[in-house]
Design brief:
Radius of gyration: 26 Å
Shape: elongated
Distance between the termini: 50 Å
Oligomer: single chain
Number of strands: 17
Largest sheet: 8 strands, mixed
Strand content: 15-25%
Helix content: 25-40%
Structural class: alpha/beta
């Protein structure tokens, strides 16, 4: 199997394991990646399709994907094995006529068919879905492109399947975990995008997990059966977590570097104004890192650094005008903010500092004497002081040394004095705030 470190990688392929949040992830991918690079969900793979699309996802077998796509980099989502089975049972029970495979629907016609009956089923057609399915999917037993056995002949999982699955995940580009409390952040870091909102299961203590009622309903024999159906999956899950924890950066951030053209980078033209609010999805995609949750008409920086990214198209602007609101109160009378820009011809080109585009602003609710900030201003080319009322806003202009044309631009807000409203004024807000970004105008 091709690993993420090999240069022959041609595509990204998401191997979906049922009831692990895979379709949700793929919908997110379609939103944040270039639309024409994402293959329709779970559509049949055909030879040559990898030449047109770059990201694939669905119920694919590893061998089939490798055969049709060449050398894809694989990634997947894993879920606690017992939770996955509980979720599958609930999903199938909600609407058997739509969700359950045709050859298994008769089981759900029995009014006494419950979770214990579900996991006790010995029909090979059911075992294919419940017997350590994460392992059998990743090992290839679940998918048999050569039709070596039909669903009604499924032999169940065995230790050799676990060995194959463990070897396979060693070559995976990234593995996500549905219980990860920072799943949205993990996903954003891996693919070089920002502000992803990814629904996930509750990873709290076992007695609070929504699946616990189903597990508690099992007899001793049922619990033993559940353990048997998940033992290989649990070993895989634990090994995958150790694998990702051992990485210097836990996530395959290098994926975004290998596939820079895939990332959807919002565009900006001269004269265009961008409003940073929750109604503007295009603006939200500019927020690369260091931002709090976007609000109705603004977004606050988070902690020390915050970064914007967008692509200049057409006739390039000569500068950028930002409308920002510093977090200022009587107990926190100043904010120190530096704004710098970097540019490159494309996402995979090196960043270059834009000459004379650095600005440092000392924003104060009370006028500061220049001497009080002399040390700060000593090595700075442009230092500006504003006196604004608490809750007021200020306009900051950044001028480029020359018009930017067809360039990817990064703007970095560096906050020297972020503060928690809870600490400064006793307000019930523990976020670390610096300035709120309201709008940007390409001049």
């Amino acid at each position: 199997m091709t690993t993420v470190s090999e240069t022959a990688i041609t595509n990204l392929c998401f191997l979906h394991i049922p009831k692990t949040g895979g379709q949700t992830l793929y919908r997110v991918l379609r939103k944040v990646m270039a639309a024409d690079s994402v293959f329709p969900w779970s559509e049949t793979l055909r030879p040559g399709v990898g030449d047109r699309y770059r990201i694939f996802g669905g119920h694919y077998g590893v061998r089939d994907a490798e055969e049709k796509l060449g050398h894809p980099a694989f990634f997947t989502i894993l879920r606690r094995p017992d939770s996955r089975l509980c979720s599958l049972y609930r999903f199938w029970s909600q609407d058997p006529g739509r969700h359950v495979p045709v050859d298994l629907r008769h089981l759900f016609e029995d009014k006494d068919f419950n979770f214990e009956s579900f996991i006790a089923a010995s029909d090979p057609r059911m075992l294919r879905h419940i017997d350590n399915a994460m392992v059998t999917i990743l090992s290839g037993k679940y998918h048999q492109p050569d039709d070596s056995f039909r669903s009604e002949q499924f032999p169940g999982a065995d230790p050799s399947d676990l060995d194959v699955a463990l070897k396979r995940i060693d070559g995976f580009a990234s593995i996500f975990f549905l219980e990860d409390r920072k799943l949205s952040t993990s996903f954003a870091e891996a693919f070089g995008v920002a502000n992803i909102r990814f629904p996930q299961v509750n990873a709290s203590d076992s007695e609070q997990r929504p699946d616990q009622a189903l597990v508690d309903s099992l007899s001793p024999a049922g619990r033993e059966r559940l353990s048997e159906l998940t033992k290989f999956d649990q070993t895989l899950y634990d090994a995958a977590q150790e694998k990702m924890d051992a990485r210097p950066s836990k996530r395959a951030i290098d994926l975004a570097l290998q596939f820079p053209a895939l990332v959807f980078t919002p565009t900006v033209r001269r004269g265009q104004e961008v409003l940073f609010g929750s109604a503007n999805a295009n603006a939200e995609m500019m927020l690369i890192a260091g931002w709090n949750e976007i609000e109705q008409s603004l977004v606050w920086t988070q902690a020390g650094d915050a970064q914007l990214r967008f692509k200049i198209v057409g006739e390039g602007p000569r500068g950028l005008r930002f409308v920002i609101e510093p977090y200022l109160t009587p107990n926190h009378a100043a904010q120190v903010v530096s704004l710098t820009t970097k540019t490159r011809d494309s996402l995979n080109a090196p960043l270059v500092d834009v000459a004379e585009a650095g600005v440092v602003a000392v924003l104060s609710g009370h006028r500061l004497a220049l001497s009080s900030s002399a040390a700060l201003a000593t090595e700075l080319r442009n230092t500006y002081f504003w006196s604004v009322p608490n809750g007021g806003q200020v306009t900051v202009d950044l001028w480029f040394s020359q018009p930017m044309r067809e360039s990817v631009v990064d703007v970095i807000f560096r906050i020297a004095m972020p503060v928690r409203p809870l600490d400064a004024d006793g307000v019930a807000d523990s976020r670390l705030l610096g300035v709120a970004l309201k709008s940007m105008l390409a001049l």
